[in-house]
User: What shape does this take?
Amino acid sequence: MSQELPTWLAESPAYEPPRDRDGFVRTNLLRLAALPARMAQAAGKPAFLDRLLQPVPALVRFAGLIVSVVCVSAATNMAFVWVVFAAVLVSLALRPLPQLRATAPVAALAALIAGLVVLPGALMGMAPPSLVVRMAVKTFCTVGLTLGLAQGVPWSRMASALTGAHVPAAVVFVADAAMRGIFVLGRVAQHLNESLALRSVGHNQHKSGSAGAIMGMTFVRASIFAGEQAEAMACRGYDGTSTAAPERASRVAGVLYALAIICVVALFVWFERAMGVG
Amino acid sequence: MHIPDNYLSPQTDAVFAVAMVPIWAHCARKVGKELNARQMSFLGMAAAFSFLLMMFNVPLPGGTTGHAVGGTLIGLLLGPEAACLAVSVALGIQALIFGDGGILAFGANCFNMAFILPFVGCAVYRLVLGGEGASSGRRMAAAFIGSYVGLAVAALAAAIEFGVQPLLFKDAAGAALYCPYPLSVSIPAMMIPHLLVACVVEGVATVAIHEYVLRVAPGLVADAESGSSSLVPVAVLVGVLAIATPLGLLAEGTAWGEWGTDEIAEVAGLAQAPAGMANGFEWQAIMPDYALAGLPDAAAYILSAVIGIALLAVIFRLAASFAPARRSGA
Amino acid sequence: MGSLDAAAQVPSSPAVLEMDDVSFAYGERPALDGVSFAVRRGEAVALVGPNGCGKSTVLRLCVGLDVPDAGTLRVAGERVDAQSMADAGFAKRLRQRVGFVFQDSDVQLFCPTVRDEVAFGPRQMGLSEDEVAQRTNDCLALLGIEELADRAPYQLSGGEKKRVSVACVVSLAPDLLLLDEPTNALDEDGERRVVAFLRAYVAAGHAVLMTTHHRDLVEALGARVVRMDAQHHVVAAD
Assistant: This one.
């Protein structure tokens, strides 16, 4: 069966695209393309510290994170914060390079922004200049501690820990589905954005509509995925109990880790008392 | 709008974390007492969608872009209770895995973006829509106004949370320990950029995506009526915020340290302004004496050395790994 | 490492695509290693090889979604690299000349209706509404999807989506069509229509570069085969 092409398709006229500002396509592509790298655990062998803390139950490590962040945030004596800062820096310095690249710049940027936000207040006399440093260092510590935990404890292990802690299976599943969905839908959104970029060959008069279409179609895909995932799970006998096996961890290691956290709290209290506080 | 740690006191963080518990419980009950597999799967995907929305840039007339939070949008698509849960999960993942938004401030962030934003936004949407049978123009206006107002109120809440910190949490010398900006600064500083830019982005994104989904897949949108909730909590909230706003007047007269060098002499009872102040702003030492109370000199010296070495190690390892960026064309 | 100038088969036609010793990696993972081949006007070329050998990566480089780490890539005589792709005007000209049909149609289609989908590209090119409508109707007819014009793309079957994907790229009037597994999901009739269109397209002096596992498609188009191996090299060509 032979076809005859229309004239406009059979020829190859030169095309000069009209000018247009559609940098939002480019910006979104870069951000979405970077998402898998941010989502994945850093490649390569685990950090020394993470290998050491491997037997510690994930929930105990998470509780330790919360306690540490509270102490850093509440500290009025900067000596305590500097000690934590030193510890965070040492742990960063000992991490494999991919983990270092995923963690240090983020913490540094957060610290910089924290300092910059407070800076006008210091310049105008609303706060002492030391608050700028205090905020920056505290922010570096808290973000560094958080990202360190995220690097050291894979999400799958955290889900197992939540299951073992008798957190409702529904909650664990929703969080688990969200983590998976971010990656899957992120790729869908990235590909849709690429498709838009490839056909954005001129002046798009409906940019917001196009951006809306990308996210709208992502929502549609999310709805379809959710339905198909539920059906697939039903076909494999899912009955509402959690899909994550309980975590295997050492109780002894958990107790030792908890003692270490108590020591951190004791240090915090000691420094605060030295300031005449508490 | 993500509040990082250290801007709010741990006490403030705790208050909002506790306040969110009954809200989450109410939303979980409303969405489904025992979520079936389909609903749980859908909530997970909704959370992922919320997460992605906060990464997605929306173009505005004039060539600028911004990103939406999307609380009202998700409320319009799935109902405000489902939006609260989805946005909360997204914020939790952002805080824990990506360091976006504080861990301790999680409760405050959820209060602003997962509770206030979708509930106020959806309530205003229903108010402007005026019931079933509205024209598409009215529906678009309702979506824009609802999301605009929702984000504005959420921003106001954040501004108040910031602004009360210097009033309530000071060190022995009377200096702010956390956010130093009183209400008279935090409210205009937050509200002006939000009202002029961020809320417009939110409105544009909400209308664009809502209209697309209604046009392409209307069956996927939750019935607004079935997701309806009482307006009482919203009214109470708005009332509390209205009463709290005059606190800004208190901050004016009691702000510390706003004296100019020509006033300080009179305030302090000196013949002239101290030379150091008269010469203008200067940095204090990184480790001023009072901040190292409790740490012996030798320990402070060692601590400095550890910090210095570790910092250099981090910087040089990062610098050594730097490679020419390969950019993908778009 | 193979480095074969397979364009020697059609010596008189100018090359619309030239790859010379191109290498590319996704982060630490190599995808292409010293790939060289050319596609000339009036010919169809089929890239074949095992899964993961880099076939789809070749297509992505040709349309500027990624740029080579090493080597030279030219489309219609113009070099495609990070510097040229940074120019928005160049990127748009490239994407008008080179149409890319994704393997997964679900991520290609984002407009509310099929008609909107096909009209999206021409509308941006500054054509009048009459010209846009003409092109749209022509493309719908070429792929045999006129009756789908007012349907939402996401509700269509896999084969219907695939034909819509082809139509919405063809409406840009490209010189080179890149197709990633073009007959996936197509039924017999759909495949017949797509093949007939591609034959006419090549006969009109344009070029086609496709990845496929289907030998009968290669034979139906009379395509020249460029074979890749698991080490991401080009190892043979007809």
Notes: The radius of gyration of chain B is 24 Å. Confidence is low (pLDDT under 50) at residues 224-232, 241-261, 280-285, 323-330 of chain B.
